[in-house]
Every structure is written in C-alpha cells, then in structure tokens.
Write a structure and sequence with these properties.
CATH class of the largest domain: Alpha Beta
Distance between the termini: 43 Å
InterPro entries: FAD/NAD-bd_sf, FAO_M, GcvT/YgfZ/DmdA, GCVT_N, TrmE/GcvT-like
CATH topology of the largest domain: Alpha-Beta Plaits
Organism: Cherax quadricarinatus
Number of helices: 7
Pfam family, one: FAO_M
Radius of gyration: 21 Å
Number of strands: 11
Strand content: 15-25%
Shape: globular
Order of helices and strands: HHHEEHEEHEEEHEEHEE
CATH architecture of the largest domain: 2-Layer Sandwich
Structural class: alpha+beta
Largest sheet: 5 strands, antiparallel
Protein name: FAD dependent oxidoreductase domain-containing protein
Strand order of the largest sheet: 5-6-7-4-8
Length: about 260
C-alpha cells in the first residue's frame, strides 16, 4: 500500500485502480454522526456472515436523497446506499414487507427485480438516476479545455457525446457523458462513485494550465429521471410537444414546462 501511495503522490496517479482507497469517495454526507454509527456497526459485525449485495443500515438514511425519494418510498421502494445516496434497489409487491432479507441463494427481491426488468424491456419504466454526478464546465476557454482533456471530439451545441479522460500514461482515467448546452457551457455527467475523483482531475489540470474555465458541482441541485422502454416516447409525448418532433439520439433540448426547466 505504501508503494502504491508513493507512486500516486510522485506520478499524480496510482499504478492501479485505487478508487476504493481514495478519500474523495466520501463527501459532506459523511457527518460525524454517520462515521460514529458506522464505526460501531463495523466493529459489532466484525465476525458476522457477509452476504452478496449486503446492505448495512447504521447511519441511514443519509442526507443524500433525491426529490423523488418520498414518492419512491410510498411506492414500496427498498433503499440501498450508493456513494451516500439513498437509491431504490427494488420495489415490493402489494402486501409484501419492504425489508432486506439477504441470502446465498435467491433473495426476497429476486422476483421483484425480474418483474421490473420485464416491465422496462416490454413497456416502460421511470428510473431515478439523480445520483449520477453532474458538473458544469463553463468559461471563455471551456470548449478548448474539454477538447484538450477528453479523447472524443467536443460536441456541437445541443448534442451529447460519450468520451474519456486519458492519463499521461495512456490509461483511461474516467468515462464522461458531455453535453454542450451553450457555446461556452458543458454539462458533464460521470458516475456517482467518482464524483469528486473526476472533478479533482479536471480542476487540477485547469489550474496547471491556467485555463479560463470554472466548475460547478450541481449533483445535488439537479434531479435526473430516465424514462426507458419501447413505450417511453409515447409517454413523454403526452408531457411536451417537443417529444413529438425530431429528437435524435444523443441530442439535448431545454424544455420549460409548468415553470420547471427540463433538459
């Protein structure tokens, strides 16, 4: 471990994937109360049996909940924690208790997950993706900076690309979804588990190169819902006429509905 950390300090990146050792995997949601509760829980379960997909509930719920949290719970959502976010793992059926029953074989959520997958694949479903990290990159040199930092071409206005940050040694450091919302503004989406990990990399390079760009971490300020499935367009077209027209893959539009801005 000492050798890996030394390499990280000297070279600016670890020799292997070490995200699970990165202090930035924790954010402001890890309060003192949360840390104390988790320390007691971990010590108390030191010799307990560990199950696949295990959830531990000390310090829960955290402060990281989406705007849809109460609605999801009322619909029978059983929550799991992911990067501090309380996120639905599965939904109970009517009459079923929303409780966590781990197993080495089939768990009590097996049939519920199977049903949910079938509904989304054959009809449509709404998936809360709010935990995805969301970063605004803005400034006079924003386009040039993103072109310098990422492997794919910078998208034109209103378009989205999937791209990668490459390290100086040629490794893939991060995968990003980048949308150009204005000429000098980009919305960067990355995984919830690497929110601060990826933001740090962008900020470090902007500082070193004296780039005229600014960053805003809006992860907890913007909700994200995915409407997925073969009938998703039919559902969305009832909400706004913009979905009835030409709306190609990897495109982005801003829609103002009921005083709310959708993107």
């Amino acid at each position: 471990m000492g050798s890996y950390l030394a390499s990280w300090i000297i070279n600016g990146q670890p020799p292997f994937e070490m995200t699970e050792c990165d202090p930035l995997r924790f954010g402001s949601w890890t309060t003192n109360d949360y840390v104390l509760a988790k320390a007691r829980e971990s010590y108390g379960m030191n010799n307990a049996v560990t199950y696949p997909h295990e959830e531990r509930f000390a310090g829960r719920p955290t402060s990281r909940v989406s705007g849809a949290h109460e609605v999801l719970e009322s619909e029978g959502a059983c929550m799991q924690i992911h990067s501090g976010w309380e996120q639905p793992a599965w939904f109970t059926s009517p009459g079923q208790q929303p409780q966590y029953c781990p197993s080495f074989q089939r768990t009590n959520w097996h049939e519920a997950v199977e049903k949910e997958v079938d509904l989304v694949m054959t009809s449509a479903g709404i998936i809360d993706l709010t935990p995805f990290a969301k970063i605004i990159v803005q400034g006079r040199q924003a386009a040039a900076f993103m072109d310098y930092m990422t492997a794919n071409s910078v998208p034109p206005l209103g378009r989205t690309v999937i791209t990668h940050i490459l390290s100086p040694t040629g490794h893939v450091y991060a995968e990003l979804t980048v949308t150009r919302t204005h000429e000098d503004t980009f919305l960067v989406i990355t995984g919830s588990g690497v929110e601060l990990h990826d933001l740090r990399w962008l900020q470090d390079y902007a500082r070193r190169g004296n780039w005229n760009v600014s960053f805003a971490n809006i992860t907890e300020d913007m909700g994200c819902l995915s409407v997925a499935g073969p009938k998703s367009k039919d559902i969305l077209s009832t909400l706004s006429p913009v979905f009835n027209g030409k709306f190609p893959f990897f495109s982005c539009k801003e829609v103002l509905e009921t005083s709310e801005l959708w993107r």
